[in-house]
């Protein structure tokens, strides 16, 4: 299957945080670094080095490539722990996040998508995963129940349709989200009109300059 046909797992998290942010990154291919994204990148550096180690009955694999051929999603798991059980190893995906637990479910959907890939690759059900938050230095256990799985399936469909249509949603300024977004200067949520994409806005700025 063509690699371009696969949706990045990270796009699901971007979409649930803000559909416009997702389109800017995955349709218009723009990106900007901020203090928050830099801190997140540093937090991921250790997990981003592929390696495998075993300690106290737990085999830990970092930077593990994931893919689900039927859902056409792919990504890289920060950490996958394989716990020894009487029935064999039980996989537990662990995703590292810079901040603290969120009120929305974007992080949980990203983790659930990783679990779906692991289920397809390993051939057994994965009931639980963990989100590790750098600000609290704690893990949050996530149960991959039917509700979360259906939300994940729906998000995959929504992201795929948006990318295929190559449409960027209109800008809607929300202080809590927009002010923390590294793309705010490119997005210009207070300025960009309803039907104008970022590339159009940038072209106008260059023309006026």
UniProtKB/TrEMBL annotation:
The keyword Ribosomal protein does not apply. It holds the Pfam family Cas_Cas4. Its cofactor is Mg(2+); Mn(2+); iron-sulfur cluster; [4Fe-4S] cluster. GO terms for molecular function: exonuclease activity; iron-sulfur cluster binding; metal ion binding. It comes from the Bacteria. GO terms for biological process: defense response to virus. Mg(2+) or Mn(2+) required for ssDNA cleavage activity. Residues 10-188 form the DUF83 domain. CRISPR (clustered regularly interspaced short palindromic repeat) is an adaptive immune system that provides protection against mobile genetic elements (viruses, transposable elements and conjugative plasmids). CRISPR clusters contain sequences complementary to antecedent mobile elements and target invading nucleic acids. CRISPR clusters are transcribed and processed into CRISPR RNA (crRNA). This is CRISPR-associated exonuclease Cas4. It comes from Ramlibacter tataouinensis (strain ATCC BAA-407 / DSM 14655 / LMG 21543 / TTB310).
């Amino acid at each position: 299957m063509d690699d371009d046909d696969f949706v990045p797992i990270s796009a699901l998290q971007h979409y649930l945080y803000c559909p416009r942010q997702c389109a800017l990154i995955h349709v218009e291919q723009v990106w900007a670094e901020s203090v928050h994204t830099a801190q997140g990148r540093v937090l991921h550096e250790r997990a981003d080095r592929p390696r495998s180690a075993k300690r106290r009955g737990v085999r830990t694999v970092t930077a593990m490539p994931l893919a689900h051929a039927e859902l056409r999603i792919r990504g890289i798991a920060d950490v996958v722990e394989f716990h020894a059980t009487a029935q064999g190893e039980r996989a537990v995906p662990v995703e590292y996040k810079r901040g603290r637990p969120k009120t929305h479910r974007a992080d949980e959907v990203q983790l659930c998508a990783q679990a779906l890939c692991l289920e397809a690759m390993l051939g057994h059900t994965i009931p639980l995963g963990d989100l590790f938050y750098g600000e609290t230095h704690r893990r949050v256990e996530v149960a991959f129940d039917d509700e979360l799985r259906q939300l994940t399936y729906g998000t995959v469909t929504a992201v795929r349709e948006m990318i295929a249509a190559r449409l960027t949603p209109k800008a809607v300024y929300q202080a809590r989200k927009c002010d923390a977004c590294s793309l705010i200067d490119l997005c210009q949520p207070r300025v960009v009109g309803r039907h104008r994409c970022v590339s159009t806005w940038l072209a106008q700025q260059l023309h006026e300059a």
